[in-house]
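fyi for ur records
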Amino acid sequence: MRLELDVGNTRTKWRLCDDYSVFESGQNLMDELAQEPWWISVVEVVWVSSVGREQDEKILALFPKAQFASSQVAHLGLSNSYEDAHKMGVDRWLAMQTVWSEQPNKTHIVIDAGTAITLDVIDEFGRHVGGYICPGFNMMKTSLLGGTQRVMAQDSWQLGRALGNNTQTCVDHGIQDMVACWLESHRANQPGACVWVTGGDGMRLTSLLSSPVTFEADLVLDGLKVHFS
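which gave:
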């Protein structure tokens, strides 16, 4: 039995699985462990993707033999464009490993919409061309509302991209349209690319885009099996 962890900036996704099935999963590992789950005693292997370093010591205290993935120069036909490959966020690297292993020899655009929004491009030869890291939806909204005195809106979101007729809609639709236009411009530059979306805000982003993309909630967790193979 294997416990796979995706430790992000704001949450720790997890799943208990073997090579064939997922038995349990969740969005907050520490809350789950506080309930003393039945499966804790059957875990044999722990694989971790972590960008939240403050959680690493807690994970090692609970699972001393946990194996932490790291970004690589190259693996199974996929190569990293970073001069120092280890400085790339491992979540980005694992998501790219997943899509390349599933559909090699194609161009891919991989978008992870979480606390930050990342976009990475892989060419048909398996070369990471490069990417972007930008503020996520909530970070943009918090920054806008915190830096202005007369722009006020609720924390909740109104989904859409149309021009707004009140402050709430102007803020929400403005941010969402800006992100969607940005991504669609990159898709237009790579018309033959397979476009993948993941992350906590991935479903919302997918619904905003003008043409279909592939949403996969667990690209990072799926990449752990590729990484450790």
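The longest strand covers residues 128-135. thats all i got for now
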